[in-house]
Specification:
This protein is mainly alpha-helical. The chain is built from seven helices and no strands. Helix 2 runs parallel beside helix 4. The radius of gyration is 19 Å and the shape is elongated.
């Protein structure tokens, strides 16, 4: 792994985040909705980089609001699922972002340790099941 990949940075293809004061009215409207929805005074870099393509910014924010908003799963459970997928995918940015969100929703150190154990176990058993080409038990159908 090269040094840039090890520290989470990328090469020249990375686009700089678009700050609020530099954003178009269209992008500012999404930023305003992000801040209002999250009851926050800032927008994180994920959204600021997506702002280079406003249709993607709008679509992803709408999707995020719908999926992560009120539903059958409580907000902490949603963040734990997001965190588990982010760990499995190796997305350091998403781990940091959703780890912070989970802590803000009440994640304790004990719950985090248990989550990490579950993530490790699930990844190991999934890999074994794939490698062994296991047939699905009739009772699971």
């Amino acid at each position: 792994m090269n040094a840039a990949a090890a520290d989470g940075t990328r090469g020249s293809g990375t686009q700089a985040p678009i700050e609020y004061e530099d954003a178009s009215a269209e992008v500012r409207a999404v930023y305003d909705d992000i801040m209002a929805t999250r009851k926050s005074d800032w927008v994180n870099n994920y959204w600021k980089v997506l702002a280079h393509h406003p249709p993607t910014l709008r679509r992803m924010w709408a999707n995020s609001k719908e999926v992560m908003g009120p539903g059958a799963l409580d907000p902490l459970t949603k963040e734990l699922i997001y965190l588990a997928v982010s760990v499995t995918n190796g997305c350091r940015y998403c781990i940091a972002s959703h780890g912070a969100a989970a802590r803000n929703k009440g994640l304790t150190p004990e719950q985090h340790a248990e989550l990490v154990a579950i993530i490790g176990l699930a990844n190991e058993t999934n890999a074994q099941a794939v490698a062994l080409n296991l047939q699905i038990d009739d009772k699971f159908r």
